[in-house]
Amino acid sequence: MFEFTEEYEPLLREVREIAAKVVKPRAKEIEESDEFPVDMANRFFKEGYLQILIPRHFGGMGKDITTFCIVSEEMAKVSASMSLLVIVQSVGTLPILLFGNDSQKSEFCSKIPKDHLVMAFCLTEPLAGSDVGSMQMTATKEGSQYLLNGKKNFVTNGGVADQYIVFAKTNPPRGRRGISAFVVDKGLYGMTFSSKDDKIGMRGVPSCSISFKDVPVSKSKLLGEEGEGFKIAMETLNRSRPAIGAQALGIAESAMEISTLFAMRRRQFGKPIAKLEGMQFMLAEMATMIESAKALVYKAAWHLDKGLPHATKYSAMSKFFASDVAMKITTDAVQIMGGYGCLKSGNLERTMRDAKITQIYEGTNQVQRFVVAEQLIKEFLEKYGTGREWSEFI
Ligand SMILES: Cc1cc2nc3c(=O)[nH]c(=O)nc-3n(C[C@H](O)[C@H](O)[C@H](O)COP(=O)(O)OP(=O)(O)OC[C@H]3O[C@@H](n4cnc5c(N)ncnc54)[C@H](O)[C@@H]3O)c2cc1C
User: Fold this and answer.
1) Is 32 a catalytic residue?
2) What is the domain range of residue 12?
3) Where among 183, 208, 229 does a domain terminate?
4) Is residue 104 located within the same domain as residue 169?
5) 208 and 145 part of one domain
6) Is 139 in the pocket of ligand 1 (CB under 6 A)?
């Protein structure tokens, strides 16, 4: 079985306790009300989970991607939405941590923990989802500021967040190389928020569309250089995709546990259904998929923490594999519970709805496969160069 090294054990115990004692009792209500749980956000700030990657000298937890994944996984076992709350906060913080200048870092990285700033990440648009380079939103320079015009979709934490990382084109003819990233305050004139999306899962953490009409943003809010926006988005998502994998893993583990317990208790044909071969095959496959996904998620996290060269490949692999596993396992878990799996009171169908979303956000699983294949080709060319003969490999 997979085990963490000793240094992670105290944190793992602590997160499990918070998840069980604080989050689990609220999970059903958060799901049913679909209201943003301010009490959970405040508690997570207190525990450090919403400033997990921010260095200690700014008041953050100063932890690594492995820790980020541990918190995401453990929270997802009791509430996928509360795991999303942790993840999206880091997705909105990473662009500043990775590309902010000293003054941006000291301003925002201190304010996030101190003033409990909630973050959001605005990349997707109505006409630009997977194809980020086709985004239409523009940022036009006007004296000492930029004017933002366009629309963003599916902004998680939209409306509740205090700061928004917004991607817009400063040089539209350059396609993806013309994208820049800005830190935008919630209250700016010209920003309008739609009502929240009525989603199939991850309820309680809202998403919405945001329209920008001549929204003035000071030049000092540009992250990195003009034209670096695509790189900023990809470097951020590289680091958060294993956490989505960990979230999916937590969802799958929870579904497996509930359905195993059910299979041991439910009797048909004179014995527990867990003793029927057809059920045993399903349980065995579920457990094997979980172990494989866990190994891949934490391998990706380890590659990122060590700054190893193939981190992008493992990050994309972990996201698509673990979320596909979660979809398969949650669907099978419902199957194992038969009619009872279809009842909301069974607490299981929620895992299936949440799992579906993990296959879609942070880059769909089709796009992740595309990323992995591109990385494989790159690695092959680095290793062997071009012009090698077919006969050399057979
Ligand atoms: C709950 C939720 C929260 C979200 N939060 C955020 C957020 O905070 N910030 C943000 O910016 N975005 C967010 N998103 C948006 C999410 O990242 C996008 O939905 C996702 O990237 C896909 O974009 P799309 O929905 O426009 O689908 P499209 O890109 O239109 O894709 C539609 C289908 O076509 C497939 N497809 C597209 N291109 C290819 C290709 N080259 N090869 C094969 N298949 C392809 C896709 O895989 C998909 O199956 C969120 C989405 C959801 C559901």
Assistant:
1) no
2) 6-114
3) 229
4) no
5) yes
6) no
Q: What's the chain look like in SS3?
A: CCCCCHHHHHHHHHHHHHHHHHHHHHHHHHHHHCCCCHHHHHHHHHHCHHHCCCCHHHCCCCCCHHHHHHHHHHHHHHCHHHHHHHHHHHHHHHHHHHHCCHHHHHHHHHHHHHCCCCEEEECCECCECCCHHHCCCEEEEECCEEEEEEEEEEEECCCCCCEEEEEEECCHHHHHHHEEEEEEECCCCCEEECCCCCCCCCCCCCEEEEEEEEEEEEHHHEECCCCCHHHHHHHHHHHHHHHHHHHHHHHHHHHHHHHHHHHHHCEECCEEHHHCHHHHHHHHHHHHHHHHHHHHHHHHHHHHHHCCCCHHHHHHHHHHHHHHHHHHHHHHHHHHCHHHHCCHHHCCHHHHHHHHHHCCCCCCHHHHHHHHHHHHHHHHHHHHCCCCCHHHHC
pLDDT tens digit string along 150-187? 999 999 999 999 999 999 999 999 999 999 999 999 98
Which of 203, 236, 361 gets mutated to test ligand 1 (max ligand atoms within 8 A of its CB)? 361
Same domain, 141 and 109: no
Report yes or no on 1 lying in a domain.
no
Nearest atom within ligand 1 for CA of residue 362: 17
Residue 377 falls inside a structural domain: yes
For the domain that residue 282 is a member of, what is the CATH number? 1.20.140.10
pLDDT of 79-135, one tens digit each? 999 999 999 999 999 999 999 999 999 999 999 999 999 999 999 999 999 999 999
CATH number, domain of 164, equals 2.40.110.10
